[in-house]
């Protein structure tokens, strides 16, 4: 994940200008329309941009899903047929939006971030999903074709659970729930890595630990940027008086709200854990320097004075009476032994040994 | 305690799906029904899932306690007979909920975390308890059969105190009070360990201190995650206008609220103490490195110049006039003594000795 | 002061149970009744628990002060005669309450913490004071007999100032004001110690400084735990609509509120100062390590190369032409002198000397 | 950018005094008037201070732009003709204002900070822009003539987009949008530099890294000071009930508000990243000290004892039996080899090698 | 500035007791009365305490300024004649108040802190100013006679600007504005010192830098304690519904509020800068230790092994074949040269050179 997505390139363009999302080559847009009701079952169809259905509030629910934002004309023709504001279409195309919900009177516009583990298993992919909730209709826009909505699609096709009995607000909830569930998958991976890192830091901190702590911290910071506004989005859907979320669906959104709170709790906890780990890491580094210093000091303190002593009797003065004495050599060894024992006792007392 | 409980495994399941709580082998469910009133005394019965009593608002209070969440069918049949929403049943089964209170119109749903010291005495066990408070009825769900509610049970059986005279809201309060009391037991143990650690860090900080500080910090972070929403839960019960909590019981909930505030105060205080202890630990480590360095420097500064001097007169040049002089050797000793005294004076002045 | 007061021992007792405050041997209870009004002057009497006066709202103010909480029956009989709720009596006895104010309809219950310097001058004593404010009556409960209320007692006896002209709410204010005034005494001592410590840390930081910083920090944290809820207590008395605090007394409570704010300001300031001092301490420690290292490095860099040089000419090879040359010895001294000057110049340039 | 702009020089002047903005030599003022409406197209004119148009609310929108604040009489004559309060004129001239919005009844006064990359590419220029929004009129005041409003001017001239169809509030929005877009340009540069710095710190932290981290942190702090009040400004325009912002323009201001939130998010994220980088930097420095220490300790530990040993047999005692033994020399080499192997094994075990 | 001003000495005194401000010898009180109106011009008079004018709401504005709080009887007689509450008079005399505003029904009581650079240029003086705003009257009380209000006095005397046309609320504003302007003077000095310190820390951090950082931080903390409540004071005057601040004066107070916000912004920014500087300082210290260590390690690593080698051939064994070989000496020099080159290459590779 990049630190900031680019939107500087758009500086100076008039608002409401539709431009394909800059940085990365966007996928072409594929539009899929699903209709279902409790009575009539479910029909599915892949449509071209000329065939995009008009506004209609017949029986049942219409779910129009658009995969890929590469073809601006597709977004434009959907916008024209369903009466969507220019600024909303701009926000759909520019994938650097902050999660938000906007009440446009006859429809609700929701921007979310979807995250999932990347192919390398170690990185996190982030993608923008836009939802438009009208009476009986849900329009959804994904940056890339993905399988995150497949579980919802399967439940509609199979007619299991309560989804076919419910209105479009329940469909919107189901899509958002599918997105939020993926946060837990990513959180769990991060949690595993934090626990593994924690053990390794306590057991054997090495130079890479701080880089790994930083990398996890970076991920958590980036996630938090997406999740915090997500909580506000879900909360304003729960609190909303606008009638887009009907009474029977409200407990489901409340449940979703609990999930977002839980994710934020986990992120905060992770942050606190990581900063605690950095403290352990730093104190273990300082501990280790201490150990190294002690070894050096013990060796130097033991042998430098002895080296001086033997140096004394290596001098070539003609008048050094000790050199002639017969017991000088063993006496010197005795003195050196006593000095060593003295230092060792001192080190023992200071708990350096 | 794990950092995050798993609920990633449930990603993609339709909401309201009852699945046994993932990670750990759940205990089978045992259902116990207690009826009491001031007039008729108290009766107790262990029931099978077919015998679960229907909704009834006769005289007195019905307390249905379900120990263990292993048997999903038991939860389901309780739910069916007492008219509980699917999402509530799901929350009861999935023990990774955040403490919360939900007003479902004809009943109040409360999720709490119970903590108690683990068997090793050193770890903390955490368990989810769900309460459903209806008019005249309390349903309680524990993850594992435990003895935390025994004091309440005994008070009902003995008919002492005011419990038999009161309604079901007082029973709910008593159960919550029993749970919150256990937090104090855990807090006290943590407090003892913090004080012991504090003394040991000030007296003699060693390499394990930082690991122990971190471990306590970890526990406090995990506790805080449970206690903070607990405060909101109890507060919303105190503030609640819904009539589930009657006027005479309100002072008791207010008392309970004071207790949760006190626990949070203690947790915050513990956190501040631990971060203060880390500061002492780090400064004592840096102090110690300083001490070690000083010893090394003193020894090296005293003896390295002397070693050079004796090395000079160990050279084998044929033309070194000093070697022949008769007083060279004692004069050299004099010079070396003076040098040593000079350095010692310098060290004294810099307060290194 | 202990980190947490014990109330784990009470876990499992039914609410409203009166038990003597656990940890420390509580003093026996002595009850003192004072009556005064502007017209009739002032009478004082020490009463037994059988003589505790009944509720009465005659002329003037009744102040019943209970010193020591050792005799539960005294508290109980006061409670019975003045119609105090069981939970309130429990809170009076259990001295681990958080400061709070509770409106019980016909009386106001206030819990405060009183602090004063301990006998050693260096520690802080903390004690719980409970006040019950009824119309015309103030009941006060102290943990230990003390002299903090003596100034109020003297003012009542002497009839000076406005106290005899005012109602019971002014008496309650006077008692609380006497308590809060003691906070300033303690704050001033802490302020003096912080300033003394600051000077000593800047002048000559030693190993004990961090322990003393920590000890002050600990005290401030414990004080803050008492003062923060105190502010809320006083504020809710200022804001209170209940009529317990009459209009003429309100400015006095507002003044008291200003005082609590000031204490909190001072505590926050002290905390910031102490954390700043820890920074100075740590940087001065690292400075000192630096100094020690420099001395070691200078000595070692000067003499280790020289020692090598003289070692070379201490070798016993038969074929070393330099040994025979007549000018070798003075030339070597010249080389060694130049090396030394070179290194000294280098150290000068790096500002190590 | 300076830490604080000077306004101390104005201390003591009566409020409402117009003085040219102190510190820097201000540019002379050039006034440009643009009139446009959907029907009549667009006319543009550069006017002298005598020609400044009077208040008029004819058809279309009047945009009076004043470049440079050097000529106080120009500001004064604009103020007189359009009925602007003295304090507002003072705020326009003194370019050390905080971004703010003030509702003066018949006009809205908005102060913003414009930022753009400086000529060196590495520094950030900041400039104050003041807007006055009246019915049908926008007055704008820039510190220096710049090209930031050129895109708006071009859109008006070309008549493209919706700008000619809209009222003066849309013009005000367009100007503010042009300013906010420039923040993204600056943010992107900062983001690039943070990412470059991050890589370099992880790969090879050097002494300059901390200075560069600090410099970026400094920039972010200065930016944040401008952006935070900007958010409040835009928010109060969105929330405003005063009628200056009409219904059709409100979504555009809401969009602008999203942008300011995004900038603040990015700034906070940058701050967190930089403080994380400082942690890596410090831990990598301590790592490196550790490495250096290890090398020193290994060398010293290996050779200092050996030097002692060879020193022993360099002594000149007459009675040293080992000197005569024929195998002494190879045996000593053996002992020294074994010592070396022993130490190397020890270092291996402690993972120092 | 002291950390806490003393008010412990007052503990136990009845509220409303007027005592001269403890610590420092207070100046005697001098009372100056100024009357002005647009019609009648301006008269000024220095009065004794017997001559203090009575309450009167004639034409124009009366400004009574009292310099010095040393004579309690002066304060008392002012209080008596203008009907000021005892607690207010106490707050005026005790100069350890927190800035605040109190609405006493028929007058408004404002306490402010005035700061100005001390005589040494380096320290900050703080003084309490109390204002009482009645209809047509402003009473002001300064701790010491000073010249901060002279600009206001001059404007009244000269009749320039709008001050004579306005009511007493504008006078109160003018006095507060004069006080707040002085904050900018002090802030500017602090800003200059921060920037100077920043440059010196980046260029050449020395042991005094941390003390200077701490001293600035200390000043900022003490300033912040005065400015934060000042913001609340000015804000409650802007928001006030009480009629003391009339509509035409409200924009001026709003302007003043902007100034206080700006001061707080600057203080927060300064704090962030200083903590960033401490980070640079610490990292530069650790950098320097690193440099010192490297020099030591390079010297020791180069020469200690060589010293061992030459020591070997200084041994006096009779059977050392190398000693007799003719090429031993030059070969040993070769080996030593190669070792040195090897180590230098290694240091180069690790970037230590």
Description:
The structure is a homopentamer of 353-residue chains. Chain A has 353 residues and is an alpha+beta fold. Chain A folds into two domains: 276 residues, Beta Polymerase, domain 2, CATH 3.30.460.20; 61 residues, Up-down Bundle (Methane Monooxygenase Hydroxylase, Chain G, domain 1), CATH 1.20.58. Helix content of chain A is 52%, strand content 15%. Chain A has a seven-stranded mixed β-sheet with strand order 2-1-3-7-6-5-4, sandwiched between helices. In chain A, a hairpin with a 4-residue loop joins strand 4 and strand 5. Chain A is rod-shaped. The model of chain A has no long low-confidence stretch (mean pLDDT 85). The interface between C and E is large, with 64 and 65 residues.
Summarize the topology:
The structure is a homopentamer of 353-residue chains.
Chain A (H helix, E strand, L loop, with lengths): L29 E8 L3 E7 L13 E7 L4 H11 L3 H8 L6 E4 L4 E10 L6 E11 L2 E6 L7 H9 L9 H37 L2 H33 L10 H63 L15 H22 L4
Parallel strand pairs in A: 3-7
Antiparallel strand pairs in A: 1-2, 1-3, 4-5, 5-6, 6-7
Name the pair of protein chains with the most residues at their interface, and give those residue counts. Answer: D-E, 66 and 65 residues
Q: How many beta strands in the DSSP annotation of chain A?
A: 7
Radius of gyration of chain A: 35 Å
For the record, the CATH architecture of the largest domain in chain A stands as 2-Layer Sandwich
């Amino acid at each position: 994940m990049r630190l900031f997505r680019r939107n500087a390139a758009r500086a100076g363009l008039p608002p409401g200008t539709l431009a394909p999302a800059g940085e990365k080559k966007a996928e072409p847009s594929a539009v899929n329309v699903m209709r279902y009701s409790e009575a009539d079952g479910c029909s599915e169809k892949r449509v071209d941009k000329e065939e995009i259905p008009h506004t209609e509030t017949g029986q049942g629910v219409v779910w129009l899903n658009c995969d890929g934002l590469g073809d601006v004309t597709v977004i434009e023709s959907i916008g024209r047929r369903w009466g969507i504001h220019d600024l909303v279409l701009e926000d759909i195309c520019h994938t650097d939006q902050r999660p938000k919900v906007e009440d446009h009177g006859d429809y609700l516009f929701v921007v979310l971030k979807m995250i999932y583990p990347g192919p390398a298993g170690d990185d996190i992919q982030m993608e923008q999903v836009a939802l438009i909730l009208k009476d009986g209709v849900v329009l959804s826009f994904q940056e890339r074709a993905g399988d995150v909505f497949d579980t919802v699609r399967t439940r509609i096709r199979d007619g299991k659970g309560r989804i076919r009995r419910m209105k479009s607000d329940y469909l919107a909830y189901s899509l958002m729930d599918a997105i939020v569930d993926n946060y837990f998958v990513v959180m769990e991976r991060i949690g595993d890595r934090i626990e593994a890192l924690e053990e390794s830091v306590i057991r054997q901190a090495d130079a890479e630990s701080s880089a790994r702590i930083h990398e996890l911290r970076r991920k958590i910071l980036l996630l938090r940027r997406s999740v915090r506004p997500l909580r506000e989005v879900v909360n304003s859907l729960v609190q909303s008086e606008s009638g887009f979320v009907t009474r029977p669906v409200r407990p489901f959104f409340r449940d979703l709200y609990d999930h977002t709170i839980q994710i934020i709790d986990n992120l905060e906890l992770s942050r606190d854990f990581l900063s605690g780990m950095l403290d352990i890491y730093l104190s273990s580094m300082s501990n280790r320097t201490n150990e190294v210093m002690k070894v050096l000091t013990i060796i130097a303190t033991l042998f430098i004075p002895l080296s001086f002593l033997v140096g004394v009797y290596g001098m070539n003065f003609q008048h050094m009476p000790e050199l002639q004495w017969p017991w000088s050599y063993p006496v010197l060894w005795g003195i050196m032994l006593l000095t060593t024992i003295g230092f060792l006792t001192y080190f023992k007392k200071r708990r350096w040994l």
